[in-house]
Amino acid sequence: IMEVVYVCEWEKRPKNNHCPSIPLVCAWSCRNLIAFTTDLKNEEDDKELSHMIHIIDTEHPWDVYSINSGHREVISCLEWDQSGSRLLSADGDGEIKCWAMKEHLVNSWESIQSSSVDGDPIVALSWLHNGVKLALHVEKSGSTNFGEKFSRVKFSPSLTLFGGKPMEGWLAVTVSGLVTVSLLKPNGALLSASESLCRLRGRVALADIAFTGGGNIVVAATDGSSSSPVQFYKVCVSVVNEKCRIDTELLPSLFMRCTTDPVRRDKYPAVTHLKFLTRENSEQVLLCASSQMGSIVECWSLRKEGLPVNNIFQHRSPVVGEKQPMILKWRILSATNDLDRVSAVALPKLPISISNTDLKVASDTKFCPGLGKFILHQITYHVFMNLDLCTGAHLFFFYSCPQLHMIRVSPSMGQMLDMNTLLRHLLFLLEYCMVTGYDWWDVLLHVQPGMVHNLVEKLHEEYMRQNQALQQVLATRIVAVKASLCKLSSATAARANDFHAKLLLIAISSTLKSLLRPHVLNTPDKSPGDRLAEICTKNTDTDIDKVMINLKTEEFVLDGPPLQSLQQLIQWVGDFVLYLLANLPNQGSIVRPGFGFLRDGPSLGMLREMMVMIRIWGLLKPGCLPIYTATSDNQDSMSLLFRLLTKLWLCSRDESHPQEPDETLLDECCLLPSQLLVPSMDWLPINDGVITKIQSKHQLRLQFGKPYTLPGLNPNSQMEIFSRSPASQRMDNLRCLHMGICPTEESKACTRCGCVTMLRSPNKTNAMKQWEQRWIKNCLCGGLWRKIPNT
Questions:
Q1: Which of 167, 411, 534, 739 has its CA 20 to 30 A from that of 569?
Q2: What's the rounded Cα separation, in Å, for the pair 322 and 357?
């Protein structure tokens, strides 16, 4: 059911140097970023401690970014926000810090805000809820409609601004029983307030925070003794006269069942773990009581029950419309037998409860992510301090000094599944990531190379069954998912390059079309870009000039500077068309990059539209045209390529009945290399991450701070054709610029696809700056950026 994927450890250090101790806290974000803490001490002076926060992305675990947090006491809590781009840290002195990416890089962080409850240690910490909740319907996993599988649940934010926009901020619980709230105002100022959880303040050893659909916050707290009740409080946050106000209310409490059992009453004296099952489910809680030798875990659920009526009132005549009074009461759902001492508990982040209905669905479908609770026991030669789960609840990590272990857990929890059922489970999780925007790296760990083709095909089939509006929303995300899948198998590696090229093609097309403006001021029914697409679809003429006649060329009139600054993007389009047509005769070789475009009618149509657009702009500004090296001085290269591209597009525009290219077209394409110099397209490099190396059962041994060198590829391997020699030109994959063999400019790379681009912009024109701003936070594929060292 479980296997170690990789182990990453600290480099051995001299005795007189700093060394990391056992960490205290760790957390996993929805973008597959891991944060964990250590205390660095100087062995010559044990009193000197630096409380460190370390952040890694799971694809490049050796590239650790270590922050000297500046906390005066040991860090007690770490909490990611819903987007996975900001991190909260809290310590034993009541100080809370908010960390954000510097220049949107996963390996560069800075503190942007802080709040404090002086001298009062923080025991629980959470961001306020933003009101976004997506329900997961496992019982409808076989449905073809994404709206039935994943539905938006009515869920109110913890606090709203004018117009209903959720207000950002965080909430913490202290050891003395205080709840403190800090709100981030739109102008960047911080609004803070504190209030007692109840009138009689008492010690809080453990606490957790959850949210209700009505916008309230629920806090669970215990003083650490299993003989004391576990208390629950409702917390309401509001802003009155520019001041933060906190109102609290006591909710029904519970006693652990093990304390009422005469055999176990004194066996487990301490409550060591307290967690709500999910942050949006305040009605189900997990408790763990422990002794020095063992532990027991209980799950409880809050239910509405009818209040019994005294016999005196049972015989009176009921009033019309009168209902039986109801009360809320905690009922135990399940409990474990006696366990070895539990060191850590991790709960899934999928929005699933453990009601009888959910357990029956899991039994019927054999789909268990979201229902598993991972409990780590203490063993003799390691002390595990903490662990956390990823989104899909089938991957978790733990840290034992000085190593971080990544462990893969079967989504079926060890049940034997046939291939179709396994593919359906993985497809369901990929669809969930695609709809929510969560990173799908953890799902890829369960995909074997032989599954890739079927998963890509089934994912496309499910996507094509959705309505047009949803397809437009998910258009680029599904291409990114397909690209990630195809990298897992050498047989489909070329298609991964095609999907990345398609992402760039879609982005360039939308950018160029956005430059078009209607000639008259009144808003037309269709934009110039839409009219261009409609005319190019209807007009099947192979002469580019005849297609231009039907367009309102005044809508294409632009100033010279924007066109000239976008020349490198226009050049990429021209080179790509020439490359595809020149390789059409070699279409039998599936491994060749570009093969996927030869039958992709929509993409060929998009290229055709851009060729028309570029042709018109070339009349206004010849310097923006793509440059071709022709063997004849009177060769009209664009007309030739447009004619051949149109013939190829006509063969594949009807996706249900594609036709084979005729012999005439193949012969003309065979002649292209003798007429025009065919460029060598600069495909994305082989990803330097670990995902392509951990499909086997052998675990990787990695080291923090030391880049992992992928073992040499087999010279006969199909993936060898995508690799670069050390003397090859480096490419800025976003700006389509050559950076030289040994670039001196600082660069950043995508954590997902490996796309490389310069960190600083060399452009000064607005048109190119707007293009660059689109990718300031994320790559074309949606991946995060990380700074990479100079070559």
A1: 534
A2: 30
* Torsion angle of the four alpha carbons 481, 353, 152, 430, in this order, in degrees rounded to the nearest 10: 10
Please report the pLDDT score of residue 124 as a whole number.
Answer: 96
* Size of the chain, expressed as the number of residues it contains: 791
Dist. CA 648–CA 46, nearest whole Å: 73
Amino acid making up residue 717: S
**CB burial of residue 37 (10 Å; 0-12, 13-18, 19+):** buried
Two tokens, residue 733: 């994959």
Tokens of 347: 């709960």
- Whether 183 and 167 have beta carbons less than 8 Å apart is answered as yes
Residue by residue, DSSP assigns 623-638 as GGSPP--BSSTT--HH
Integer-rounded Cα Rg, in Å, for the chain is 30
Q: What is the pLDDT of residues 432-468, one digit of tens each?
A: 999 998 999 988 988 989 999 999 999 999 999 999 9
Return the percentage of the chain with pLDDT > 90, whole number. 46
Between residues 671 and 765, the one the model is more confident about = 671
How far apart CA 385 and CA 74 sit, in angstroms, is 14
Binned at pLDDT 50, 70 and 90, residue 365 comes out as: low
Neighbours of 667 (CB within 10 A): 10
Residue 128: CA count within 13 A, CB half-sphere = 25
78: tokens are 């770490």
Q: Which of 54-68, 194-208, 340-354 shows the lowest mean pLDDT across its residues?
A: 340-354
| pLDDT one-digit tens code per residue, 684-693 | 766 788 888 8
Distance CA 725, CA 323 (A): 79
452 Cβ neighbours under 8 A, 6+ residues apart: 485, 486, 488, 489, 491, 492
Q: Which segments within 103-167 are labelled E, that is strand?
A: 105-116, 122-127, 134-136, 150-152
Residue 768 sits at φ, ψ, to 5 deg, of -75, -35
Beta bridge partners of 281: 278
Cα–Cα distance for residue pair 680/575, rounded to 1 Å: 9
Q: Which two tokens stand for residue 727?
A: 């003397």
Q: Which helix (H) or strand (E) holds 55?
A: strand 45-57
Map residue 5 onto helix, strand or coil: strand
Examine the pLDDT at 723 and tell me if it is beyond 60.
no
Taking the C-alpha atoms of residue 638 and residue 640, their distance in angstroms, rounded to an integer, is 5
Residue 720 pLDDT: 43
Rounded distance, CA 551 to CA 546, Å? 10
Quickly count: other Cβ atoms within 10 Å of residue 437's Cβ: 12
Rounded distance between C-alpha atoms, residue 344 and residue 384, angstroms: 7
Question: Among 408-417, 564-573, 619-628, which is the least confidently predicted range?
Answer: 408-417
Give the burial class of 626: count Cβ atoms within 10 A of its Cβ; 0-12 exposed, 13-18 middle, 19 or more buried: buried
Segment 636-655 shows an average pLDDT of 92
Name the percent of the chain in helix, strand, coil, to the closest 5: 30, 30, 40
pLDDT top residue among 412 and 499: 499
Q: What is the arrangement of strands in the sheet containing 403-409, beginning at the earlier edge strand? A: 387-389, 395-400, 403-409, 2-9, 700-703
Share of the chain above pLDDT 70, in %: 84
State the Cα–Cα distance between residues 444 and 438, nearest whole angstrom.
Answer: 13
Is residue 784 classed as helix, strand or coil in its secondary structure? coil
Helix (H) / strand (E) element for 737: namely strand 737-740
Report d(CA 354, CA 369) in Å as an integer. Answer: 11
Please give the span between the terminal C-alpha atoms of the chain, in angstroms, as a whole number: 41
Asked whether the predicted pLDDT for residue 195 surpasses 70, the reply is: yes
Name the E strands within 197-242: 206-211, 217-222, 230-240
Q: Judge contact between 417 and 367, C-beta under 8 A.
A: no
The one-character DSSP state at 382 is B
- Core vs surface per residue 129-159: b (16+ CB within 10 A) or e: bbbebeebebbbbeeeebeebbeeeebbbbb
